[in-house]
Amino acid sequence: MKGKVFLVITLVMMVVGAIVASQVQTDFGRIAVKDIRFQGKDGATRSALLYVPANATPQTPAPAIQAIHGYINSRETQSGFAIEFARRGWVVLALDQAGHGYSDPPVGDSGYGAIDGLAYLRSLDFVDKDKIGLEGHSMGGWASVIAAATFPADYAAMVLAGSSTGTKYSQQYVPIPGTPVFPRNLALVFSTYDEFSMLMWETPVARDVVTSDALKNVFGTTETIEPGKIYGSIEEGTARVLYQPETTHPGDHLSCEAIGYAIEWFQKTLGDVNPIPSTSQIWYWKEIATLVSLLGCLLFIFAFGRLLLQTGFFSALREAPQNPKPAQGGGWWVAAILMILIPAITYFPLTGIGNFAVKASWLFPQQVTNTLMFWLLVNMLISLILFAVWHLFNRKKGGNSVSYGLVASGGATVKKIGLSVLLAFIVIGAAYLSVVVISAIFTVDYRFWIMQLKPMSAMHFQIALRYVIPFLLFYLVFAVVLHGQLRSLVGSFKSRMIKAVVVTSLGYLLLLLILYIPLFLGRPLGVPDVLLTLYAIVAIQVLPLFMIVTFISTYYFEKTGLIYSGAVINALFITWYIIASQATNFPLK
User: CA-CA distance, 219 to 216, in Å (whole number)?
Assistant: First the structure.
């Protein structure tokens, strides 16, 4: 009975979270949010969420804003900005950049998709063509600059959030330098702890952007820039202003201050429709609601799997781990410390190598996914070698394939592997179906901040088939080492789960502390190279993801005595999570 109640709770979390999120993003019925597709000038499909407030009609056209997310994000990442813009009566096109979300690859095509987006926005009869704003975060800002240069008379104002015009570091991505007259009516929202300050404005510390020569050139001044002061003239289109919210680069999406500054600028440059103060915001309730849905989906993986294991069909899988022979004493501590430190120590060296060694191709078309896959597979080989050396000594103590969860103690291993794979596909399939239904009904997905679970497109499914095997290999070895060598023989089931999570995740926590403590002390982010800054932000997701996959692996190993169901669930889950939310860099058509 408890299992059924647990399952119902997870379903309620997913549905109620989606309902609340939908109500917030529509401003309780005052905004229509539409999931749209349109064709770009070269026939590429572009995807966006279109926010249409009730005041926007062909008879009363409203100001409009194109809002564009940054690299390896999607249209929903901009929902905080989009919701608040739309509440104030502005039409919003929250675009999936080219190669992101449901927009056709490759990344960078048609000005990252922004050229097509602006043309589409101007085609809408309920949009006031004289009052169009461009807002972009990070790479989305570069996209906005390119669109502005392509259509210099087709927009009225711009907000760059954590972004820049072309500087010596970013010119390969946006080769258009800013001037005192371009872009038109520019606001720069650049956080005091932005990790990309060197890339964007050639300053090692984000707070010092006020002294950036590159930014001074855009502002038309030789003096230190005064935050909040308007330089130039809004009427003449030469206005410039710098805002400095107290947050990080990805933190702009969770910052009422950053979103408020963007609202304030468009109120000045596009004009008010609904005069709501910039400090009056509700977007964060959607973020909380989709977090509840995300947690519900993650808990569903355990609740539904538990019920399936209680059925007669899967009863053969129910077995506690047999003949455990893990490392003990000092040997356990050595193995645990190695598991904590090696992935963290190798993270930047291997992502640096992988970023150049495994280029996006037809087979593996997602560059960041390739880089992470390279890092994981090299760590898999290191772990396998260390485990094999340990096994040579441990086998004298009785350690064998049964001890490591590779073989069932009572035989029928092949049958149990088949059942384990089927169980994994049913569990993840049901979780995936839930987000498909939720997305179709409520136009939301499961997410918090930069973490997201969303439906995959047909293209995503094709890509996923190419990556799932490498991820499966990693999670099989991961499970063998974690449960064969590092399983605790003492304590409760819950305590073993917690110990496992500490061993697999503590290294990433330490890595993040090493990276971000200097940043918050007013020094540069602790990365070995400016080009690896992106992977510092990616590491923020690595920590919770490793906690999740460790819980899954440990739970299903404890319930079945085998590594297979947990490893396959993790491979399917991580493949879904990464492929649907990553950028596709190689053209697949």
Answer: 5
Helix or strand (DSSP H, E) at 67: strand 62-68
Indicate if the pLDDT at residue 491 is higher than 90. no
Rg (the chain; Cα; Å): 25
User: Checking phi first, is residue 25 left (phi over 0); if not, alpha (psi -120 to 50) or beta?
Assistant: alpha
For residue 129, which phi and psi values (nearest 5 degrees)?
Answer: -65, -20
* C-alpha–C-alpha distance, residues 197 and 249, integer Å: 9
- In terms of Cβ atoms closer than 10 Å to its own Cβ (0-12, 13-18, 19+), residue 389 is exposed
Per-residue pLDDT reduced to its tens digit, 371-403:
999 999 999 999 999 999 999 887 777 788 998
CA distance readout (Å), 398 to 202, 342, 408: 60, 27, 15
Contact 252, 271 (CB under 8 A): no
Q: Please tell me the distance from the alpha carbon of residue 162 to that of residue 271, in angstroms, as a whole number.
A: 24
Q: H/E/C letters for each residue in 37-59?
A: EEECCCCCEEEEEEEEECCCCCC
- Per-residue burial over 167-184, b if 16 or more Cβ lie within 10 Å, else e, is bebbeebbebbbeeebbb
- Tokens, residue 492: 């409760």
**Ramachandran angles phi, psi of 407, nearest 5°:** -130, 140
Strand partners, 248: 193
Tell me how far CA of residue 268 lies from CA of 117, 145, 147, 187, 229, in angstroms.
23, 20, 21, 11, 13
Rounded to an integer, what distance in angstroms lies between the CA atom of residue 175 and that of residue 178? 10
Phi, psi angles (nearest 5°) of residue 50: -105, 120
Do 183 and 158 touch, CB atoms closer than 8 A?
A: yes
Q: How confident is the model at residue 1 (pLDDT cuts 50, 70, 90)?
A: low
In whole angstroms, give the CA distance from residue 109 to residue 43: 11
Q: What's the token pair of residue 31?
A: 């905004």
SS3 381: helix
Alpha helices in 443-492 (DSSP H): 458-479
The 3-state DSSP class for residue 63 equals strand
- Residue 8's H or E segment, with its range, is helix 2-25
Q: Go through the chain and tell me how many residues it has.
A: 589
Distance CA 498, CA 62 (A): 53
| Distance from C-alpha of 346 to C-alpha of 374, rounded to nearest angstrom | 11
* Element containing residue 510 per DSSP (H, E): helix 493-520
Q: Which two tokens stand for residue 2?
A: 């408890």
In the chain, count H helices and then E strands.
Answer: 16, 10
Question: What distance in Å separates the CA atoms of residue 545 and residue 376, rounded to the nearest whole number?
Answer: 13
Identify the structural domains of the chain with CATH numbers, from first to last. 35-281 (3.40.50.1820), 322-581 (no CATH)
CA distance 18 to 286: 9
Contact criterion met (CB below 8 Å) for 168 and 202: yes
Q: What is the pLDDT of residues 557-569, one digit of tens each?
A: 999 999 999 999 9
SS3 230: coil
CA distance 215 to 226: 12
Please give the Cα distance from 554 to 479 (Å, whole number): 8
